[in-house]
TrEMBL record:
Keywords: Carbohydrate metabolism, Glycoprotein, Golgi apparatus, Membrane, Signal-anchor, Transferase, Transmembrane, Transmembrane helix
Major localisation: Golgi
Subcellular location field: Golgi apparatus membrane
InterPro entries: Carb_sulfotrans_8-10, Sulfotransferase
Coiled-coil ranges per UniProt: none
Similarity-based family: Belongs to the sulfotransferase 2 family.
GO cellular component: Golgi membrane
Example GO molecular function: sulfotransferase activity
Organism of derivation: Camelus dromedarius (Dromedary)
Protein known as: Carbohydrate sulfotransferase
Membrane topology: Single-pass type II membrane protein
Keyword set includes Zinc: no
Amino acid sequence: MPAAAAILTNSSASTFVQPAPRALDSYWVGLQRRQQERKRVMQEACAKYRASSSRRAVTPRHVSRIFVEDRHRVLYCEVPKAGCSNWKRVLMVLAGLASSTTDIQHNTVHYGSALKRLDTFDRQGILHRLSTYTKMLFVREPFERLVSAFRDKFEHPNSYYHPVFGKAILARYRANASREALRTGSGVRFPEFVQYLLDVHRPVGMDIHWDHVSRLCSPCLIDYDFVGKFESMEDDANFFLSLIHAPRNLTFPRFKDRHSQEARTTARITHQYFAQLSTLQRQRTYDFYYMDYLMFNYSKPFADLY
């Protein structure tokens, strides 16, 4: 079998998955090379900065964001604001829980219990799946992901993020906040949100929507077989579905899950939000996400960053 027609799915088991016939042209070969390069960059960053990770034992906490699809032997680490809602829809169709991704509502995706998490299995079940299933994650440019999370959680009515995060942020970082703002937690501005993010003594804890990918998915401890990117979602997703022999009629959905009338967060929109910050705040935010920039080979979003 030509090297370009195979992809290593688990380095510890040294097993190969033969892609479906449609994968055997130069287009798919190019996507496979892209995968090999992404894995190489990620592993080099881990070797340089996380030397001790490979010797640590995997605990349930490390796999708490990983969803399991047993039929096609897939493990998907959820990175919020990087296509996770639609990926969970795809997993539900793969598992036979729905006939089409368009039939699955947002609340079913996020608040239902249809998909199992890896940490719900016993230790043997966790280790068996980690060593034999195809493990994948999708990432996104860190500043864009941060702005996307801010817009979603703070610029729209939200019965959780406004009272839990908004009230604490406004009380700590807005001088002379109005009584109404302190009562509702609504109206948090992006610079105030970034102040909270960078504060080592945060008044309220971290959240998965803006936590580092390196903490959510432990890629230096778990050897992911496939690293997709939000920026090349369609190509990467359909390549992955080909590799796992998904039904031919299943493709990654392109619809926007929430606030569908609103423009997606782009690099241009992200720059508009970061223009509200000082040079030092931008630098400190870059430092905060430095490992994500390094591991997933994203370039510096501003020329004055070092």
